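Slide 14.
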Amino acid sequence: MSSNKKDNGVLSKWSLDGKPIKIDKWDGSAVKNTLDDAAKKVLCDSYGYKENHSLMDVRLAICTVSCMFAITALIYDYLHPFPESRPILIICVVSYFIMMGVLTVYTTFQEKNIFLVAHRKDPTGVDPDDVYTLSSSMKRFDHIYNLTLTYTDGTSNEVRTASIKKPISTWYDENGTLLQDMYEPEIKNLHDSISTEKKEN
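Slide 15: predicted structure.
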C-alpha cells in the first residue's frame, strides 16, 4: 500500500504513543469501537463539522438521576437503619428501576446505535445547520460491520442515507492493526455520496 495515501489522510495522524492503532481482532467490542472512533475522526477532522453531544448528554442525565436514587437509598439507610428506612428504600428502588426502563427505551428508540451527531454550519450563517449522524452495528460473534451515515438538510429537512456493510478483515490486517489508508476513503466516499454543497448567493 502506498505510503502517500497514509500521509494525506487524517487517520495517518491518529496513533497511540506514536504507533498505529492496534487491537485484539477477536474482541468484537474493541473492533467496533475502533472503527466507530475512526469514522467519527474522519467526519469531524476532514470536514470540520462540530460534534453535538446532546444525545449522549441525555443518556448521562438519565444515568445520573438513577445513581442519585441509589445513593439516596444508601445514605438514608445508613442514617436511619431498617426498618425505619423502609419507605424511602422502596421509593428509591422502584424509581431506580423505572429510570433503567426509561434508559432502555431511550437507547433503543432514540439513540438507535448512533455514536455521532455532527453539524455543518451554513457559510452565510443564515440557514439552519445540516446534520450528519453516524450509526453502526455488528452482531456478537459476527465479522460483518455495518456503518450508516444519515444526512439531514437543514433547510429542506430532506433526509438521505448511505451505508457500507463489509467484513472487518477489509480494514484490519492479521495482527489487528487498523488499515487507515483503506478505511478513510470508505468514509469519505460514504460522505460524498449523500452530501450537497450549499450554493452561496
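Speaker note: The beta strands are 50-51, 114-120, 130-137, 144-152, 159-167.
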